[in-house]
Design goal:
Helices cover about 40% and strands about 20% of the residues. It is α/β, with parallel strands linked by helices and about 300 residues long. The chain folds into three domains: about 70 residues, Orthogonal Bundle (Arc Repressor Mutant, subunit A); about 100 residues, Periplasmic binding protein-like II (D-Maltodextrin-Binding Protein, domain 2); about 100 residues, D-Maltodextrin-Binding Protein, domain 2 (3-Layer(aba) Sandwich), CATH 3.40.190. Strands 3, 4, 5, 6, 9, 10 and 11 form a seven-stranded mixed sheet that branches. Strands 1-2 form a two-stranded antiparallel ribbon. The chain has a two-stranded parallel sheet with strand order 7-8. Strand 7, helix 7 and strand 8 form a beta-alpha-beta unit. Helix 1 packs across helix 4 and helix 5 packs across helix 9. The longest helix is centred in the first third of the chain and has 27 residues. The radius of gyration is 23 Å and the shape is elongated. The protein starts with a helix and ends with a helix.
Length: about 300
């Protein structure tokens, strides 16, 4: 079994179309078909079902796909490590991030690319902490900038970055900003802008109200971009609930602690325990950690 065969198999598993997979691999369709046939002979079982013009992964193919992807990633990591040992910092990091932390990631990406201009980056954004964990486990991304989930696979390690309380965020001239603290009960009187339902921060906010036996606050506006939320709050017309640290770079905003609310967002990088951490990944983690400590 050769690495090239695995790469051909993984691409076909993604495309489920011999013609499209061959085009993206820059090979002929017959070359791809022959490679898959040899791989299936080595595995001793069909990896794909061909029904008419459609192609499907068999149950064995689905299982093998995860192993093949991890094998390819491990070889790529090994090659990257060899280059790093020789002072060549190229390679490509594949990073996942939850929407509410994309501003932090954006700043860190700029710093990272200045330090390592030859390195490549691929970034996947999602609103699901669970989805990012699955992508890491399957080897589709190297690590993810996310929040620590209440339950996590024992195959993952969590590198903590920060812990910050949820606060009401208001424009400094807003009436609410005059309070040193504010109760959840009073918030129903004001218009809010939140992340959409399903995003980790939004779900933590709802839990605050549920724990206090209060009606869950319904926002007037839902936005999946942290910067836009803060811009809307800056207008003085809306409030939001986010982590205390977000106001550090917004001089016209104020974070007001919430009475009796103990919920804290725990930011972290999650990665596979079984995977070696190459220098580029280690450097990116240091940049994120330094960024939070210096700015927030």
């Amino acid at each position: 079994m050769e690495l090239t065969q695995l790469k051909y198999f993984v691409k076909l598993a993604e495309e489920l179309n011999f013609t499209e997979a061959a085009k993206k691999l820059f090979i002929t369709q017959s070359t791809l078909s022959l490679s898959i046939k040899k791989l299936e002979e080595e595995c001793g079982t069909p990896l794909f079902d061909r029904i008419g013009k459609s192609t499907y992964l068999t149950e064995a193919g689905t299982t093998f796909a995860d192993f093949a992807q991890r094998a390819i990633k491990e070889v790529e990591t090994g090659m990257r490590c060899m280059k790093e040992d020789n002072g060549v910092y190229t390679g490509r990091l594949q990073i996942g991030v939850v929407y509410s932390l994309r501003d932090i990631l954006n700043s860190c990406v700029l710093e990272f690319t200045q330090r390592y201009p030859e390195a490549g980056l691929s970034i996947v954004e999602t609103n699901s902490v669970k989805e990012l964990a699955e992508l890491v486990l399957k080897g589709k991304i190297d690590f993810a900038l996310t929040y620590k989930a209440k339950t996590m696979s024992p195959l993952l390690e969590c590198l903590m970055l920060f812990e910050t309380p949820l606060c009401v965020i208001a424009q400094k001239d807003h009436l609410v900003a005059a309070n040193k603290r504010i109760s959840l009960r009073r918030l129903k009187d004001y218009p809010f802008v939140f992340f959409p339902y399903g995003i980790h921060t939004r779900m933590e906010i709802e839990q605050m109200f549920i724990k206090k036996n209060l009606p869950v606050l319904v926002p007037r506006i839902e936005v999946n971009d942290a910067s836009l939320i803060l811009q809307l709050v800056s207008s003085g017309r809306w409030l939001t609930i986010l982590s205390e640290g977000v106001v550090a770079s917004w001089k016209n905003l104020k974070a007001i602690p919430i009475n009796g609310a103990n919920e804290k967002l725990k930011g972290c990088l999650i990665r596979s325990k079984e995977k070696y951490m190459p220098l580029l990944e280690h450097e990116f983690y240091k940049i994120v950690k330094e960024h939070w400590e210096n700015v927030y």
